[in-house]
Amino acid sequence: MTAATIVQLYPNELGGAGDRGNVLALGTRLTAAGIESTVVEHHRGDVLPAATDLVVIGNGPLSAMRNVHGDLLANGDRLREWAAAGVPIFAHGAGAELLGTGIDLLNGSSLAGLGIFPFTTARVTDRKVGYIRTKTDWGQLVGFEDNASVWKLDDGARPLGTVIAGSGNGDGREGVVIGSSIATQIGGPVLPLNPLLTGVLVAAVASRLGAEVVASAPTELDDFARKARDIIIANAGHVFSRI
Q1: What's the average pLDDT block by block, 10 residues per block, for the chain (243 residues)?
Q2: Which of 6, 10, 37, 87 could form a disulfide linkage to 82, CB 3.0–4.6 angstroms apart?
Q3: What's the alpha-carbon Rg for the chain, to the nearest Å?
């Protein structure tokens, strides 16, 4: 069986919004596709492996972002090298913002980003909390958003999709895609809820490895995802609009 390595960045600080579920979904779908996966957790002070096949970074509060910021910058060259070499990166929320160009904070200060994703972040006072639906080239994505950020994409940058219900980037678009890497505000966690998006990442990993994806029959996981998606679609736009 073909083998793949998944690096999860800062799971303790940036993994509390269902992001471990995203990693589990990726591992499960890779196995179903005939690719055995190993997860390497990168914590502050660790040395990144020499190579990887997929990078995942999740969401967390500003305090967590500050805690990992120095270590992230110290490992920036390797992460940028991976991105330039076509290693898929899946980034959610605060983790995505740290991989963007920079983050403007409410107190007038800023955090430098790694510049992997072509967008800047502005933290705002208006928090967006609720279900979100987004139309993408691969189909409709659904999930839950909880953020106080506006993402401004660089000119010509490709958004992940167009918002049907919810806020997304704050301009009617959601997320950003560059090559095989994806940044999004959609939580839930998004990958267990949206097998189609997980499949996009699995296909990107398989392509880099020169592996053929083995087709698998629908499982109980697909049924769970469908039922959860149906509930979100039925309630998006008028549930959890404020907390």
Answers
A1: 93 88 94 94 96 97 96 97 97 98 96 98 94 96 95 97 96 97 96 95 95 76 89 76 46
A2: 87
A3: 17
